[in-house]
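Researcher: I'm preparing a figure for a lab meeting and need a structural model of a single chain. I don't have an experimental structure, so a prediction will have to do for now. The sequence is pasted below. Please return the structure as tokens so I can convert it later.
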Amino acid sequence: MTDVPRAPRRPHERTHHGDTVIDPYEWLRDKDDPETIAYLEAENAWAEDTTSHLADLREQIFTEIKDRTLESDMSVPVRHDRWWYYSRTVEGRQYAIRCRVPIAGPDDWEPPVVEPGETLPGEEVLLDSNDEAEGHEFFSLGTFSLSDDGDLLAWSVDTTGDERYTIRVRRLSTGEVLSDVVEGAAPGATWSADGRYLFYVTVDDAWRPHRVWRHELGSSEDDVLVFEEPDERFFVGLGRSSSDRFLIIGVGSKITSEIRLLDATDPTGEFRVVWPRREGVDYSVEHVIVGGRDQLAILHNDGAVNFELVLAPLDDPTATTVLVPGSDEVRLEAADAFARHLVLSYRRDATTRLALMEIGPDGIGAPVELDFDTELFTCGLGGNAEWDPKYLRIGYTSYVEPATIWDLDPTTGERILRRRAPVLGDFDPADYEQHRAWVRAEDGAMVPLSIVCRRDTPRDGTAPALIYGYGSYEISLDPDFSISRLSLLDRGFVYAVAHVRGGGELGRRWYDEGKQLAKMNTFTDFIACARHLADESWTSPDRLVAEGGSAGGLLMGAVANLAPDAFTGIFADVPFVDPLTTILDPSLPLTVIEWDEWGDPLHDPEVYAYMKKYTPYENVADVHYPSILAGTSLNDTRVLYVEPAKWVARLREVTGAERSVLLRTEMSAGHGGVSGRYAAWHQRAWELAWIIDTATAVTRANQRNS
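Model: Understood. Here is the structure written out token by token.
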């Protein structure tokens, strides 16, 4: 039996707004300190030793995931220009292989179909990520960008997890890897129309994408700095319009954006601002052609809290005409342009929706919503790479239905089923049920709660349960299907998702009511949902585990302090549990841009005091906590490993807990955890085994005592 790790206390003092805090574990921030690494490795050994009894269960869950997954598989091919593009997987190999085959002719709109394990005639392998990952413990593909003529491929790779990528270029007609190499890029790059120039983004010392560069293929000259964003609150992104007509630079903070356009045939020209940035105004742009005239479809929130869609001439973007007005009930989220249609993505009643808007010679028609005859579902555009397609590809899924791909004929409304993700074994969607409940929060707000289980799950409080939450950045937790989740449901678990404030399920106001000085609503909403599950006999507190990651890990740490009696276990993955320390230090990665989300405690004493009341690390108390598992990665640049490391050290110190508080660090990974599908399945099996063991402990104890 290994010894329980005890991090040494080394007092570190900080003072802000007259408040002095002594932090005994801040020294763990030094990743280069051998004692830090030794402590993390000791925690890993302790976690493995403490959970060694779960080894068989982990292997069983991994096998269940593997046996339900079609390992040699292929995506539905997407047509672009002269090719069908797709990716496929091969049994026993970790990563996808990206390929293409020629189209049969200009009228070929039927994607090729191939049996699992076979290859298509004429297949050309563009990139085999298994070869790219060879010899590396971690692998992430960033850029995968083809030139307009389909002959040049720019791709980028990260082999450490720190999200800094190396870009290379291959000429596909010859297979030659060119001498052009770009180091330290952010993911994402795009070509000029002639394929002569490659545009890419780099990050600053705080990992903020802030510069756009132009690289001339084959040139020995230095790359040209095209744009630099000095405001540390803003990220820079790069892309092409759906029409491929324009290069787009997008600049955005959490609440404000600005778009710049440049004709892709004029790559050395100057980018032009669509709307100059104004604090709090968020907008996106699509190029459309109406009656032969270049127009811009602009989705914005200027005077429309849930956004409205307007049309404006390309040469005068301020001369707008409203296409879809704003609404308190409908949150407009995206407008995607094609030659003959706009596709509007939005949500109503916490559910995603899609509508088509026909582009005619005299204007753009009203939205016509697509119907999905299900209570809980997610719909959205799929892979659409053609500007003027015969079909529009759409995707659909729910908690109980695997992802489904249709091609929609926008003229007739006919939907052609292209693929329903296979689930091997005896899976039958009819064996499961999903529900939507509305839970009254502490202040009277009604919070959506999604609930999934097998139809034979008892409703008497004895079922184990897992409740998941996030609640930040206006990110919505929409229904999704998960093969790994079946390993819970088939063991009698209830699975629930709390759509708490801070997310975007009920529009921009739902987000605003869960951020900055209203952040406590996120936590109390989640607690109300957890108590609802017990009150309605879906489960009981001694059988309920909570899970959340990143900003959702902050949620986990907060509810552990606020309502430890509501849960028997909490899994916090890459958790943002020391937010005050982080947000007070503008030199740390991504801090300044986060002030729009959390507030600025460095300069605002009210924000400082408010955050100090809820930050998990600083509010650990000598109470009986649920069992806690914290997961992190050493090379995470978004939520540094030091946050969960400090949190676990303090929990163990203050509460005296040993076996019930665990820290598990991936030593060669980033924010998304390990890479490779088999490695990811093993990681999830490890986590699910802990969740199952924790949620069923009281049942096992009752059985022993009966």
